[in-house]
């Protein structure tokens, strides 16, 4: 991916606010001097052209889904060629991406279609986009804002069953993108502008623009009940030798037998701003960089369980090394003036927000 071209997916469950977010993204980044291309939602184009994705005709459904994927790939590739000719730095924002298509069919059909087209899930999910921003459906935690009026082709209607289907679809879409090194889940908020601002902030981060330092809220907790459906991943985190004021981290994340390696650099450029960059790296480069491990820090091993509860996104980390059985719950994108919707299966032991002792970087320090 060219350093001056970034391709970003805006995805999410039904009625998540993508249409409004796209308008704001175009306005905001165009005003900063970027050329912004937006790729429309291809399944909506097909629906408007007469394709019925709920058809009982399996042959028609298969050909429709295959054509949807082919056109999605073609649109993106053509816009990449155009972006390469732009003199300004360019952002391509896709209203949904290729993996969204997989959430609407069986894994077997998806495999058959990708095989026919000569592509793999890993290629499509992990290497095609610089970031994936998943906006949580209003059906989860912001039901009063859930409507079908903004999209005439939406199949999930405004009733209890429709809301249930929308929440289920929301989780299917997150699962489809799980494994991308820069998947971010954008919470619902009582004030919709906060959701939009988080989208702008995440895209700014991908573009390498300095960001205000904000503390996510963190708590030492006990799990006292059964967790809802969640994504479970193993995380191995190693800190590398770095210049003062800079934190460099290698992370290997595994789930369902698949692994992805990410190299992250965090540099504080003032008291209030930080520059953060991350990139996915190969196994060979990962193993090579391990030679630069910080001798004063141990490798962290933890299990992460990620889930959405009432429209808020949480990461529950259970540490095994160097500290055993420390359990930390971290909010993601809950604004400082909003209350955290703690799930009933979590008991808060201590609020450790902003407590540097519990930063991973400091937990890794050798005694």
Would you kindly provide a written description of the structure presented here, covering whatever features stand out?
The chain is α+β, with helices and mostly antiparallel strands and 367 residues long. It contains 10 helices and 15 strands. The protein has helices at 18-31, 42-48, 58-84, 98-102, 107-117, 121-126, 160-177, 192-206, 283-289, 360-363; strands at 5-12, 35-39, 90-95, 131-135, 183-186, 211-212, 218-223, 231-240, 246-255, 258-268, 273-281, 300-309, 312-321, 326-332, 346-351. It has a 10-stranded antiparallel beta sheet. Strands 2-3-1-4-5 form a 5-stranded parallel beta sheet, with helices on both faces. β4, α7 (160-177) and β5 form a beta-alpha-beta unit.
Poorly predicted ranges: 152-156
Average per-residue pLDDT, rounded, comes to 88
Q: Approximately what portion of the residues adopt beta-strand conformation?
A: 25-35%
Q: Please tally the β strands and state the result.
A: 15
What would you call the structural class?
alpha+beta
Strand arrangement across the biggest beta sheet:
6-11-10-9-8-12-13-14-7-15
Count of discrete alpha- or pi-helical segments spanning 4 or more residues: 10
The helix/strand series, from N terminus to C terminus, equals: EHEHHEHHHEHEHEEEEEEHEEEEH
> From the alpha-carbon coordinates, what is the Rg to the nearest angstrom?
21 Å
Biggest β-sheet description: 10 strands, antiparallel
Percent of residues in helices comes to 25-40%
Distance from first to last alpha carbon: 42 Å
Query: In one word, what is the shape?
Result: globular
């Amino acid at each position: 991916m060219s350093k001056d071209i970034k391709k970003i997916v805006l995805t999410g469950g039904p009625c998540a606010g993508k249409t409004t977010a796209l308008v704001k993204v175009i306005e905001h980044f165009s005003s900063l001097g970027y050329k912004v291309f937006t790729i429309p939602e291809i399944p909506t184009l097909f629906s408007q052209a007469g394709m019925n994705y709920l058809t009982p005709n399996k042959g028609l459904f298969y050909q429709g889904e295959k054509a949807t994927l082919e056109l999605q790939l073609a649109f993106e590739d053509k816009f990449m060629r155009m972006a390469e000719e732009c003199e300004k730095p360019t952002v391509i924002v896709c209203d949904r991406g290729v993996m969204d298509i997989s959430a609407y069919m069986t894994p077997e059909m998806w495999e058959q279609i990708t095989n026919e087209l000569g592509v793999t899930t890993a290629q499509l999910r992990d290497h095609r986009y610089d970031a994936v921003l998943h906006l949580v459906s209003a059906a989860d935690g912001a039901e009063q804002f859930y409507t079908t009026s903004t999209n005439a082709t939406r199949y999930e209607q405004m009733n209890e069953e429709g809301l249930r289907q929308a929440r289920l679809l929301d989780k299917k879409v997150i699962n489809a993108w799980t494994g991308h090194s820069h998947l971010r889940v954008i919470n619902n908020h009582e004030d919709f502008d906060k959701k939009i601002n988080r989208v702008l902030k995440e895209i700014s981060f991908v573009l390498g623009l300095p960001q205000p330092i904000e503390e996510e809220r963190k708590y030492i907790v006990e799990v006292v009940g059964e967790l809802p459906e969640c994504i479970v991943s193993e995380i191995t985190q190693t800190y590398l030798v770095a210049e003062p004021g800079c934190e460099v981290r290698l992370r290997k994340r595994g789930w369902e037998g698949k692994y992805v390696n990410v190299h992250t650099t965090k540099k504080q450029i003032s008291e209030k701003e930080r520059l953060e960059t991350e990139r996915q790296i190969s196994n060979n480069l990962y193993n090579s960089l391990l030679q630069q491990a910080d001798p004063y820090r141990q490798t962290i091993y933890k299990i992460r369980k990620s889930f959405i509860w009432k429209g808020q996104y949480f990461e529950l980390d259970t540490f095994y090394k160097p500290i055993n059985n420390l359990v930390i719950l971290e909010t993601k994108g809950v604004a400082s003036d909003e209350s955290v919707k703690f799930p009933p299966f979590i008991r808060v032991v201590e609020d450790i927000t902003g407590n540097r002792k519990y930063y991973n970087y400091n937990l890794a320090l050798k005694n």
